[in-house]
């Protein structure tokens, strides 16, 4: 892999991107610009990568690095990509080793912008981004947040973990991030709900929210307007370019999902919703005594997925496509897939992702697998891989169905 680094204050975050890539087993050659080396020294990149660092085309001329590095790379990532670097790349300049490498690369190229809001929003930058995307370059959405000084706005470099996840996705599926969701609005739920017993304890589940966050991240980088309704998650960084609404209980999730889903092109219920909640919540911590505790009275939580489908079918909710998730285990008589088929029939959603859970599968891990079931009877196995790869598979199916409406 080639990791290009251009000259912005966010260059220091490239060190974390590099560390994560090398620890994942990738051989990474860092190509900074001269300006980048004013923020992070060459020695840092060399120590982390174990590879030499050069900026110009006249080092090791006998190896023709300005041609060879691009030809041999499986992926080129530029993080941060400044406004200047985007402009030079868009117009085919080759006045240093990084831009020369970009011209010779025939592998996927991922550019991750970072700059002040005014620079990102300038028509020149937007034209350069559009031109690069039209040529097949993946230009990621910048994040919003604190910039340099007291400035805040869109243009912040996404979290290094998100950059590495996108890189991993493009290595596995080079065409996983087309801009085919532009103009579409999607609503996604993620994480596990918690139902309080008292101020300390709750009923919940093992969902980390990683799959829902991967769905939101991939959708945003495919151009969608994304709202992520997040229940409790494993301290995940908000995906770049995504509006996040936080909830706690199943009732809170239901209320927000019904409100936000109206008018959406696609609604994805990836959250793990607690099936039951205590009939009553105690206002103080329940103390442990020598006596056995009283039996816990439970009541059912609302079936949010079924309610969304019912409201859509009754023309009370304007949502084009509704997708559900089913975390299943097999039992002595029925497989997880068969349970998923039965759930699809009960819920009536357009698509259902079935995951086998337990024994380190699906929950609290980075990877996932399963089946994608369609309301029309189609079934597609989803091979084991990163959760972002499953997300890309799902959005492929969603865009196909939306295009047929």
UniProtKB/TrEMBL annotation:
Give UniProt keywords alphabetically. Decarboxylase, Flavoprotein, FMN, Ligase, Lyase, Magnesium, Metal-binding, Multifunctional enzyme
**Record's keyword annotation contains Ligase:** yes
One GO molecular function term of this record is: metal ion binding
Cofactor binding note from Swiss-Prot or TrEMBL: Binds 1 FMN per subunit.
Chain segments carrying region Phosphopantothenoylcysteine decarboxylase: 1-185
Pathway in which this enzyme or protein is active? Cofactor biosynthesis; coenzyme A biosynthesis; CoA from (R)-pantothenate: step 3/5; Cofactor biosynthesis; coenzyme A biosynthesis; CoA from (R)-pantothenate: step 2/5
Where is the region Phosphopantothenate--cysteine ligase? 186-405
Q: Where is the Flavoprotein domain?
A: 2-165
**What's the cofactor?**
Mg(2+); FMN
Sites binding CTP sit at 275, 285, 302-305, 325, 343, 347
Q: Give all residue intervals belonging to the DNA/pantothenate metabolism flavoprotein C-terminal domain.
A: 181-399
Protein's name in the database: Coenzyme A biosynthesis bifunctional protein CoaBC
Organism from which the protein derives? Saccharopolyspora shandongensis
Gene that produces this protein: coaBC
């Amino acid at each position: 892999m080639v990791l290009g680094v251009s000259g912005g204050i966010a260059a220091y975050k490239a060190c974390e991107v590099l560390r994560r890539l090398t620890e994942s087993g990738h051989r990474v050659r860092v190509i900074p610009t001269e300006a980048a080396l004013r923020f992070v020294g060459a020695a840092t990149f060399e120590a982390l990568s174990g590879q030499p660092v050069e900026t110009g085309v006249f080092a090791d001329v006998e190896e023709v690095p300005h041609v060879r590095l691009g030809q041999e790379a499986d992926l080129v990532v530029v993080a941060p990509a400044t406004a200047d670097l985007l402009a030079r790349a868009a117009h085919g300049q080759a006045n240093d080793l990084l831009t020369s490498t970009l011209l010779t690369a025939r592998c996927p190229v991922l550019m991750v912008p970072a700059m002040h809001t005014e620079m990102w929003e300038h028509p020149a930058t937007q034209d350069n981004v559009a031109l690069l995307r039209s040529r097949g370059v993946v230009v990621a959405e910048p994040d919003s947040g604190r910039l340099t000084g007291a400035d805040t706005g869109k243009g912040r470099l996404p979290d290094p973990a998100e950059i590495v996840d996108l890189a991993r996705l493009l290595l596995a599926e080079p065409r996983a991030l087309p801009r085919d969701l532009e103009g579409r609005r999607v609503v996604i739920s993620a994480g596990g709900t918690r139902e309080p017993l008292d101020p300390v304890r709750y009923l919940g589940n093992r969902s980390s929210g990683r799959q829902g966050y991967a769905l939101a991240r991939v959708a945003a980088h495919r151009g969608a307007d994304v709202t992520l309704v997040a229940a409790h998650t494993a301290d995940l960084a908000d995906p770049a370019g995504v509006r996040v609404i936080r909830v706690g209980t199943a009732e809170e999730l239901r209320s927000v999902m019904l409100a936000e889903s109206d008018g959406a092109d696609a609604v994805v219920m990836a959250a793990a919703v607690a099936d039951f909640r205590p009939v009553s919540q105690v206002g103080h911590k329940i103390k442990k005594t020598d006596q056995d505790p009283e039996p816990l009275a439970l009541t059912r939580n609302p079936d949010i997925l079924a309610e969304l489908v019912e409201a859509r079918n009754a023309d009370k909710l304007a949502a084009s496509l509704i997708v559900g998730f089913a975390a299943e285990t097999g039992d002595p008589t029925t497989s997880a897939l068969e349970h998923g088929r039965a759930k699809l029939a009960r819920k009536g959603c357009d698509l259902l992702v079935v995951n086998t859970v337990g024994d380190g599968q699906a929950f609290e891990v980075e990877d996932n697998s399963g089946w994608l079931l369609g309301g029309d009877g189609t079934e597609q196995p989803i091979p084991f891989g990163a959760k972002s790869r499953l997300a890309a598979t799902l959005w492929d199916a969603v865009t196909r169905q939306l295009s047929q409406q």
